[in-house]
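ok here's CaiF/GrlA family transcriptional regulator, seq below lol
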Amino acid sequence: MNNLTTASGVTSASGPDELARDAANLPLWLRVAQWCMDMKGPVGRNAIARAFDIPQRQAADLMLYITGRRGDVVQARRQVTVRGGGIREATLEVLSIHVAAMPARGGASQKAPRRRRNTGAVPSALRDLALGRRRSGGVA
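and the structure came out like this:
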């Protein structure tokens, strides 16, 4: 792969054919971020939805994902403007993409690993209380 690195540390493919080949291997959120950066300005969810043939809701979710959870890879700015009638419109402007900071696909996620449940012995009195059982031979 013949990549060029710009002064801002952004890696981009050297030609449209190579970008198209590489795009198939990239996750959708990263393809959206790359496209937004190529647009060189703020982009709304309608434009993203049309460009990637996805629902507007999914485009809005991707915008939130890029700005919220992927700040380690994508430096982006999300701006919400309020138009007449209280209608809010969000735009996304991608400033740079740091591909070197991206973990390998299927690698470590940003979530902490699930803790194992402590499966110690539960006293029978506690179990009976939780299950609503009455012990035989007891005073009612």
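fwiw The domain at 3-105 is CATH 1.10.10.10 (Arc Repressor Mutant, subunit A). kinda neat tbh
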